[in-house]
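Hi support team,

I've been running sequence recovery on a batch of backbones for a student project. Most finish fine, but this one hangs at about 90% for roughly twenty minutes before it completes. I'm not sure whether the input is malformed or the queue is just slow. I've pasted the structure tokens below so you can try to reproduce it. Let me know if you need the job ID as well.

Thanks,
M.K.
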């Protein structure tokens, strides 16, 4: 078998793998993990069984494939994202609350101070469509807690749990859902440690959350 066959087959396999993973619908983190492990394994195979020039050539092919698919995915990500103002934000929440179901809504304060809303009330907002409320005069944490009280009740323990995570520096993702309009709403906080509380300069003053977050 010619010594060039391993780099050629490996490069072709990696290029196809990027396409398959991108079209599979898995999340970004899973895709990065899968492709990183795949690259490491195949580069090791080329280093052991291929010619000396095989590893740099395959690495260049893999990098080019990654950049190509990243550039191709960027317009899709932008198309799924829409910036809204406070009135439209609350209108989207109202539509979720009044829809017949099944319904799922996710709300999270991002590190930038913006509020991310994902609402699946009907087919007109398919899975993956996101809305962003940019930083403004309203406290973003108050907006999240407003959803906890409205959907789950003022005495729901999730409110205290949410504030406990905030005090620890973690801005958790609130998910509320119900199978149908006859069922009660249930909620949980997604355990994503990468969601960090935005720094003080990225959020407006708040008499409720400033003491909790250490800003006088």
């Amino acid at each position: 078998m010619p010594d060039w066959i391993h780099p050629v087959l490996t490069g072709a396999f990696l290029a196809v793998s990027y396409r398959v993973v991108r079209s599979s619908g898995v999340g970004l983190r899973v895709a990065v993990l899968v492709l990183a492990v795949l690259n490491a394994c195949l580069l090791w195979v080329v280093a052991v069984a291929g010619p000396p020039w095989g590893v740099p050539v395959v690495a260049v092919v893999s990098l080019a494939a990654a950049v190509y698919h990243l550039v191709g995915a960027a317009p899709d990500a932008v198309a799924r994202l829409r910036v809204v103002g406070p009135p439209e934000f609350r209108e989207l929440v109202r539509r979720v609350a009044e829809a017949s179901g099944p319904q799922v809504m996710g709300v999270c304060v991002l590190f930038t101070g913006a509020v991310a809303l994902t609402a699946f009330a009907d087919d007109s907002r398919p899975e993956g469509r996101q809305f962003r409320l940019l930083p403004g005069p309203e406290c973003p944490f108050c907006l999240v807690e407003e959803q906890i009280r409205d959907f789950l009740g003022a005495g729901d323990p999730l409110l205290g749990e949410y504030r406990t995570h905030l005090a620890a520096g973690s801005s958790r993702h609130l998910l509320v859902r119900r199978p149908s309009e006859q069922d009660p709403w249930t909620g949980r906080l997604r355990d994503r440690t990468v969601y960090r509380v935005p720094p003080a300069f990225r959020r407006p003053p708040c008499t409720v959350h400033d003491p909790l977050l250490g800003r006088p």
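--
Follow-up from support: It reproduced on our side and the slowdown came from queue contention, not your input. Helices lie at 5-24, 28-49, 54-79, 86-98, 140-152, 157-167. No action needed from you.
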